[in-house]
């Protein structure tokens, strides 16, 4: 390994694990860089949901080894969007489409310091497919970066300010309550909400207090607990999730099922007893 | 690798593969122990089903390299249950919550020989999350054990007799028949039953014989075959599963679908023609 | 690694990832060959669908490192079919059941050059299970081949002409149109059809032209685009898939849902305006 620049490539996509897309990309990377370790971060991003992919990637990268982060959620594959590699301040490289997927992760790693268009025909498959550029363009670039290719060999430099960014939905604070939304639903049915725990504390919501919550037609008072089992089984609880956001949960159950909620569901949340609850419209 | 104590960490959980939980734990482990190989044993344990997790882990460990076995099915995360590491007689370490998940696997590996509470703040993330201790407590401990940390650095020693154990449902033998239950349903719809083949043989059920089986309202005679294709396609067959238990199967089909059965379904099973069939109540 | 014959074992099966079957096979292989890298190509083959497994394996192998390819889709497990290893002209070994699964992949790698029956009791588990031979016969053989076992130690040589082959459904060209079928449905709902792009071009279907397509009761004219986004969102498009076959797709949507189509659905496809469309019967 001594002559590799990076030992690991981490890999996130919306490819799922039912097809062979992920395995074939592993094969392509290991043919080029046989000693690299590939970490599958997550391939369960909802198909073509760039926002979800960007969010999950940004939350994951601080926990991954410094290295190459390959990320593919690419509804515009083969059309106008650019294939790119972005270097972050911690020394990592992010490889994927220039559609907003990579920018929040680069920010989490200290910011993007440089970017290149992937256009060197020697660092991709001959005659790359128009519909599976993960295999033919992105995986080869990630492997060559792990091996230690000079960045200028990838292609033209791009201004980091010119990279495509997503508009991120921010919660609206009105009358003491956040008008927020579900930004992630995990396997357990926990509903992460785009309100961070620091902002929540400033608005008077801290662990141990009672919260007024409106979601999918339900209006109720829910304890803000330290963890799921701060309430009895099958009871709802708000917790701080593992990324510092509020999450609506049900102890030993699924909040998604309990409330009929899903990605994008609107959530009104504030301290119990404040007036915000009466002004909500959902 | 020469200075690592163990080359592999195997990893079982109820995290599923749709979210990034598993990938983030891989990242945490490889940041600490970059040369370790992580084996994903299974992440499809039903959410928070400790019994299923304990059963699958115990069946898997004899086939895994001696090393660190990280297992997380943890409905009490962040509350009173202890995070622990348990050493087994074969030299392996089991890391996870003290809720019964680890004990049957330790028994399968020759028995637990020592146990430690995981409480050293230097061997976990700063400010560990209350809801994702796999990332912040268990994965770091597993990686440090692979590297070779001295067990006494993990935390206080615990008596192995004090570890939490699950009550295991045993089948009841009455009038020549076993009153048993489905303990596992696999991807193919095969229904493993908590009757082992040795006990079955003692009760007169051997490959080649006919069995009387009652399950989910069905009462029928099923051959005990050597393998699935001992019967014609779409026909039911009882086989010995790969862990030495009886399993109700359908050749080229799903017994779960065929009988409308699932985890926990009651099964009455005995030699055909004996009287037990008439006394069953389901 | 210097004394291993192959550095990687790639692994395809219909085991799914909910159970521990895949993880246990990883464990078995790493106990025998601790330094090997195992690539999970795909474990989402539909249960016992040998044809789908053979097709996916053959499409994947050119992108995998030369090494051992372990493939298990095995409805006849434990019965008459032989466990085999087949060497291909590129130096790779294919390990699995002799039921047609391996032959198309061997052909893609230059053809089968030799084959062996797996029958050496020292290279498998003692008392192998009749229902989980992946664990007890195939995974051990793959690991021993990676280590460098002499092929003659595996067992009796078999004539490569004697290996079981599947009959492959070929499309029928009639009156300028292909009477074809859906041979793969991917996670995105893209429908691959058994018409390759070269044959399509010879029949007058090239990117940029309009095609007449009949599928599941729908009859319509669809553009043959360079990629998905050659048409507006939610519109159908025919593309060349990443293996050179035609695929019926919907931009930013699922063609499977749009047309109610699935694996095996019949597809009539030809140039728009030709007469074939009027003679189709479905």
Question: What is the mean pLDDT of chain A?
Answer: 93
| Main interface by residue count | A-B, 33 and 30 residues
CATH H level of the largest domain in chain A: which superfamily? S-adenosyl-l-methionine hydroxide adenosyltransferase, N-terminal
The CATH class of the largest domain in chain A: Alpha Beta
Tell me about this structure.
The structure is a homotrimer of 282-residue chains. The first copy, chain A, is of the alpha+beta class. Chain A folds into 2 domains: 8-162, S-adenosyl-l-methionine hydroxide adenosyltransferase, N-terminal (Rossmann fold); 172-279, Elongation Factor Tu (Ef-tu), domain 3 (Beta Barrel). The first copy, chain A, has helices spanning 21-32, 50-60, 103-108, 133-147, 197-202, 255-259, 276-279; strands at 8-13, 37-42, 68-72, 83-88, 93-97, 112-117, 157-158, 172-174, 177-185, 191-196, 210-215, 218-223, 236-240, 245-250, 266-271. In chain A, the strands form 2 sheets. In chain A, strands 8, 9, 10, 11, 12, 13, 14 and 15 form an 8-stranded antiparallel sheet that branches. A 7-stranded mixed sheet of chain A has the order 2-1-3-5-4-6-7, sandwiched between helices. In chain A, a hairpin with a 2-residue loop joins strand 11 (210-215) and strand 12 (218-223). In chain A, helix 1 (21-32) packs parallel to helix 4. The longest helix of chain A is centred in the middle third of the chain and has 15 residues, at 133-147.
Summarize the structure.
Three copies of one chain form a homotrimer. Chain A is an alpha+beta fold and 282 residues long. Helices cover 21% and strands 29% of the residues of chain A.
